[in-house]
Amino acid sequence: MQSHSRTCLSQSPQLSAQHWRRTPHLLHHQPRLTLYAAQGQTGTDFARQQQSSTKGPKSNGTPAGNGTTPTGQSTGTERDQRKAIAAKISAARALARKLAEEKQAAVNAAKQAAEHSMDEEELEAIKQSVEQATAEAAREAARADALARAARQMGPSGSSQLFDLERLRAENEALQQLVLEVAHNKQEAQRKVAGLKQKYSNLLAKKDEAEEDQMASASPQQPGPRESAAAEADEEGSDTEAAQEPAVLAREALAREGKLESTLQACAADAARKGDPFFVLPQEGVTVGETSTLYYDRLKGALPATSKLVFKAGLNRWESIQLKDLCRAEGLNPADGSEWWSVDIQVPKDTFQVQFVINDDVGGMVDNNKNRDYELSLLNPPSEDQVTESRAERIKSWEMRIRQKIDAEEAAIWEEMLSAADLVQEEAKQRYKKSKESQENELMKEARTIVEERRSAVVMGIRGESGRDGVFQWVSGPPTAGKPATLAYNKNSGGLRNSQGVLLHLGYDGWWEQDMQQLPLKRMSDAKVSQHNLAHHGDWYSCQLDVLDTAFVLDFVFSDTARRSWDNNAQQDFHSRVEGAVSGDNLARLLFKAFKPGHEQEDEQGAARAAQSAVCKLEIKAKAGKKRRELQRQVLFTMPVRPKAGQSVRVYYNPDVTPLRGCPEAWLRGGWNRGAHQAQIGPLEMKPVVPGGVGFLQAEVQVPEDASVLDMVFSDSGTTSGGFFDSNHGLGYHVPIRGSRVPQPSLSICHISVEMAPIAKVGGMGDVVTALGRAVQEEGHKVQVILPKYDCIQYDEVQELSQSGDFFWNNTQVKVWQGRVEGLSTIFLEPCNGMFWVGCVYGRNDDANRFNFFCNAALEYLRHHAGGSRPDILHCHDWPTAPVCYGDKGPSKSVFTIHNLNFGADLIGRAMQAAQVGTTVSPTYAAEVSGHPSVAPHMNKFFGIINGIDMDIWDPQSDQFLPRNFSVNEAEEGKAAAKSELRRRMNLSTADVPIVGVVTRLTHQKGIHLIKHAAWRTLERGGQFVLLGSAPDPRVQAEFNALAGDLGRQYPDRARLWFAYDEPLSHLIYAGCDMFLVPSVFEPCGLTQMIAMRYGTIPVVRKTGGLNDTVFDVDDDQERAATAGMGTNGYSFEGTDPGALDYGLNRALSSWYNEQQLWRQLVKRVMDQDWSWANPALDYIELYYKALRS
Questions:
Q1: Claim: this prediction has a pTM higher than 0.85
Q2: How far are the Cα atoms of 596, 1028, 1069 from residue 1047, in angstroms, in the given order?
Q3: Which of 34, 96, 520, 980 lies at 20 to 30 Å from 303 by C-alpha?
Q4: Is residue 353's pLDDT more than 80?
C-alpha cells in the first residue's frame, strides 16, 4: 500500500488538496472485526502489523513478549520501531493539517483577489506556494512511511532489516527530485534538500551502528526530569498546564524598574533589523513548561487591517494545536510604521518544537512565513527521542491499567455465565419435559383416533367363533388379550386336503391396516389330537401365537406353504373374539404405551442431554462474545465493557488502524437503538488518552435509560460535509447496553430457499438455512422459512404440519402448509400443477422454471396471504431464489447469499444488483469470485461470512454413534475407542499407525485425483486410509471401484473405501481418524473440516475458499491465525498437483509419528475451537440491519 502512495506522488507531483482527501481510500482499508469484507487488506491485518512492530525480538523458541526486557526497560530495537511508526503518524497528521490550511489560504487568496483586484502574478505566486507546501508535506509523510515500513519488517536479527540503506537512499533521491520538480524557486528548494539531508543523515548512519551491535543491548535513553514528571501524571490527564509566572514576573519587574517600554522598543528594533515580524519576552527565550509573551507586528507580517488576530501554534510537528487571540500590545510606539500585537503562550513540558502562524480571523488570510511557518526558539527543550520515550512509557502504563480493568470485567462476565448455567440447565430440562409432554399428548390423541377406527361398528359387529367342530379349535382355551394361545386346524376340512403344509395368516380387528402375521403349522401327534378331543378322522395341524393386548377380534385364514391353495371360510374369513379385550381410554393407553419410544430412564437421560447441550451453547456463546470483543478492541472498546443504561460510558477508538489513520482529528457521532432512538450523539471531538501519543482516543457519552444499543461512526471532522468516515464497511459500530427499560425490537427474517436440512437437504445450503435460522432465532429475532412442498420431504421430521389455506398464482392453485422444522416456523407452498411432485429437489430439465414459479408464488403469499405481516428481511439463497430479490418485495429488504457461483450466474448477477446486501459463505471465496461479472460491480455490498456447524448434531460428548462419548479432556481415550470401533467395522488391522479419512462426494470439485494420490501416499508411509462417499458420475465411480480393488489386493487390512450413505460410519470416521483430508479444487466453505476438528481430527486441506479461512497451518500460518484470534490447527497446501498435496500430508504424518506430545496438544486445541453459528449469526444480524438502512 505504501508503494502505491509513492507512485501516486511521483506521477502527479502537483496534486490538489481535494485529490489527497480522496486518495487514502486507496491506501487504507476498513477494520475487520469478525465480519469479513471481500476486498482489500483489512484493518485488523494492519493492526496486527502495527502491533507486531512494537514487540520486542523473539529469542529461540520463545514467543515475543510485551516488548520489554526482563528489567522492564524498552529495548533499543523497540524504541526505533516506536519512533518510526510515531514519525509516520505524525507526518501524516502534519500533512493533513498543512493541506487543510493551505487550501483555505488559497480560497481566501482568491476571495481577496476578487474583492481587491489582486494582479494575476500575485495570485499565481500564492497558488505555486500552495503546491510547493503540499509537495513538501507529502515528501515528509512518504519518508516517514518508508521508515515505519522498514521498522515493521524488523526480525530477530534486527538492524539489517530495520534500515535497508540502498532502499532508503533510493527513496530519498526520488523524493528530493520531487521537491525540485515542483519547487517554484529551484535554488531555495536545493538549499532545503541539503538541510534535510543533514537533518536525517543520522538516521541512515544507524545502519552501520546497528550492524555492529545488532541494537540488542542498546539501553533506552533515560527521560529527563520533565518527562519523568509527565510520566507520573494521571493516565488520562493533560500535559498542557504550564506555569504562567515567568512572563508576568518579567513584565512586572521591568515595569517597576521603568524599563518595560524601552525594553520592548529595543526588542522591536532588534526584530526589525533581523527582518523578523515577532519577538518574545523574557528575552532569554521560550522555556518549556513555562509561559512567555509573543509580540507580533501585523504590518511586517503583511496581513490586512483587521480587528482580530489569532495565534495558531503547532506543537511537535503540529501533532497538537493551540489557538489564542492576540491583543494590541501596550508599551510599543505604533508611529514607526509598525502595529504590534501580543499574546501569552503556554508551552507544555513535553514540547521539542513550536511552529506557528497568525490568522486574520475576519478576512481569513494567513501569515505562515511564506509557507514555511514561523518557529520559536526553545530553551533546554527535551529531545524528540525523549518525548517519544516518555509517551511510550505512559501509553504502556495506560494499556496495562486498561488491560487489568478489561480482564476484571471479562472475568465478571464469565462468572455471570457460570451463575446462569444452573438456571439454563433447569430451563432446558423443563423445555425438554414440556416437549415430551406435547409429543405424548399428540400420541394419545392419535391413539384415541385409532381406537375409534378399530372399534368401529363394523368391527364390533363381527361374529366371532371360539371354534368349529372338525375345522379349527383353540385347544388352549379361548384367545385372551396379551397371552399366548394355541390354534389347531383340520387340513382335511377345506380346500387344503391335498396341499403340502399349512400356513396361518393372522390379523386383528377386521384386518386392521393389513397388519398380518404368517405362522407355519405343524402336524399334531395322535396323542395330542386325543388329548384335545379333536376329531380322529381329520388331519390336524397347530401353532402357538401371541395375542395382542390391543386386539378385539382375531382374523385368520389358511393356505398351503406355496400360497396357491386357500381356506378362507368361503370368502368370509375366520374370526374369533378375544377375551379380556379392552376399549375406550384403556385401549388408547395401551396403544400410547406401544407408540411411546423409550422409558422413564431414557426420558431422564434425554433431559440430562438437553441440559448439557444448553450449558454447552451458553459457554460457546460466551466464548464467541469474548472473542468478538477482543478482536474489536484493536479498533474500539468501551469502559465499562458492557455499558449500562442511565450511566455514562467512555468510548476508546484507535484511528491508526482505520481509514482515519493520520488524520489530525477524530470525531464521534452516532445514536442509540439502531437509529430508532430520537437522541443523537455528537459530533464529539475525541481526545488522546496520552497527549500527543499514537493510539487510542477517548470520549465520554451519557447513556439514556431507554437505550439498548450504542451506535457509532467516526470522522475526521466535526462538520457534516466532506472528510473521511470510518463506518465499519457501512455497518457502523454497535455496543450492547445493559438494563434498558425498553427492550430492543426484534427483526423479522424470512429465508426463502429450495433446500432445508434435514427434510430436503441436498448440499450445504440446506444446513445453512436451518442452522443460521436457529442461531438468529436464539438471538431473539423472529425467523421463518418458505420452502416448496416436495413429495420427497422427510415428513417425519416436520412437526405440527397442517394446511392453513390456499391461493391462486398464475392460474394455479397453491396450497399453503405450516409446520415446524428444528424449531423453525416453516411455510410449505404446494402448487397443484405437480411441479414439486417429481421425487427430487434438483435434476430435472425444468428446474429454472419450477423455482421461478416458486419464487413468485412466495412473493404473492407474502404480499396477500401472510396475515398482513411483512418480514423486515427476505434472505434468499443461491440462484433458485434469485428472482425474489428482483421481484416485488414491497417494503422488505433482501439479502442474497451465493453458495456456489458455478451455477446460475446470470440469475445471481441480477439478484446481486437488486439486493441490499450480498454475501457468500467464506471470506476467501468472496475474494476468489470478486472478479466474476456477477459480483464485481457490487463489491461495495458484498461480504464473506464463514459458515458454522450444528453443534448439537456434531457433539462428541453426546454423539449416539460413538462407542464412547468424550470431551476435550478425554480426547485421547475417546478417540482411541472410536478408532478401535472404526477398524472393527472396516476390517482394518489394529497396528499402531495413523488413519487418514475422507468423507465426500466424489466429484472433480473435491479433488478426486488428489484423493487417489493421498490413498497411495498414506499407505506408502505406513498409515491406514478410509473413505466414505460415492460418485454421481458412473465413470468416476468405476474409477474408484477399481481403486478399491487395487488397494484391497495390495493392502488388504489397511485400506477401505465405502460407497454408500452411512450416517453412523461418517461419525466414526470423524472421531476415529487421526487426519481428515479435504483436497478440494475449490470449496466455497466446506463443513467437513470443521466437523473433523470438533472431534479432534486434524485437517489436511488445500488453501481455497472456506478451507483457507478455517484451517491455519501449524508451520506457516501462525501470524494469520493470531490475526483471526485463533490458534494453528492443521496442515495445508496450495497447488493442485500431487507434489503440493504431499507437502501437507507428509508433514502431518511425520508429526504423528515423531511428535506425539505436540500432536496430542494439537488435538485438544482443535477440539477447543469454536466452529458454531454463534459468531456468524451475529455477523448476519449486522448485515440485516445494514440492509434495512439501505
A1: no
A2: 47, 15, 19
A3: 96
A4: yes
